[in-house]
Give the backbone structure.
Amino acid sequence: MREKVEKILKQLVNEDVRVERTQEEHGDYASNIAFLLAKTEKENPSDIAKKLKTKIKSDFFSKIEVKNGFLNFFLSEKALKEELSNILEEKEDYGKGVSGKRVVIDYSSPNIAKSFGVGHLRSTIIGQSIYNIYKFLGWETLGINHLGDWGTQYGKLLYQIKKENKDPRKLSIKELEELYVRFHKEAENDKKMEEGGREWFSKLEKGDKEARKIWEMCREKSLREFQKVYDDLEVEIDYVLGESFYEDKLKEVIEEAEKKKVAKKSRGALIIEFDDMPPAMALKSDGSTTYLTRDLAAAKYRLEEFSPDLLVYEIGADQTLHMKQLFSTVEKLGWSKKERFIHISHGMFRLKEGKFSTRKGRTVHLEEVLSLAKEKAEEIIES
Ligand code: ARG
């Protein structure tokens, strides 16, 4: 309907006309076109608006008002009835678009060896909704599950599994999570443990058979668990391209960043500096890659592989800085303008004790949330 109003106005003026939804007492749509014309026409906006009003002859409106230079349009009953019959006819196709553009949407993205948390539930639901909306608007949509399946934390997990002499085949996700929590507790009093965790991650990176095998087991077990959640929610993500997928692409990214002087050495680490943000780390001083490096490789891969018009990341608001650093680095590297990337964030749930933290054992489990949600819904239905 907005487009129709704009079309009617456009026939009268030689401008890019836009109307906006407005408060109820001001009608259905309002236009500031008179203010734009006033810049060139040396007449005040109110007079211009009044003149325009007399020129509009359309049964699309029951009334047009001029207020403080704005044109306020009230849709007629005839216009509304016509639109209603369109809705009834087109049913769920009403409003469908034909954009033809392509969007890559990064969502859900839980971490292996940990349970599927509330944050990931939000990302899954909101991400899938964004996906569905773009699809409806005629975009070609590609969903990516950027599974957290790589990084130093898996070295720590391997270390703890070995330390406690556990049989990885028999460990549930819950037990894996507990192992990770214990690692952090014990590491507070034992500085050697961090080192041990790093060593195990380095083994994993170098393809050590045992490390790989345990990691693979954890990954498969997690994927099976996550699939249950996706089945329950009837969500199907097009691609699972976890962080480990980019392992063999990281070196190239780091070399490019150094060559283009986007990254520089600093106290043994490799960092990227920004004018308006704190620096980010591309390589830690022990040579291990970071979450950011893997995200850079993922961005490059998505740009090259899919040539998207837009890249959307549905991730919690606590990662806003990381996302800004990522988008800005992509631009510095000359891969793409940063405007092609957007972070759609969801807010964080907090417990009385503070933010959720797997490390500190402060998480709420998904099954609990879903069963509570069901209970609440039933209560509401009952009342
Ligand atoms: N696995 C990450 C986490 O749980 C989310 C990943 C989001 N996607 C991304 N491309 N960084 O925090």
Observations:
- The longest helix spans residues 209-233.
- The mean pLDDT is 94.
- Residues 106, 109, 111, 146, 148, 295, 298, 313, 315 surround arginine (CB under 6 Å).
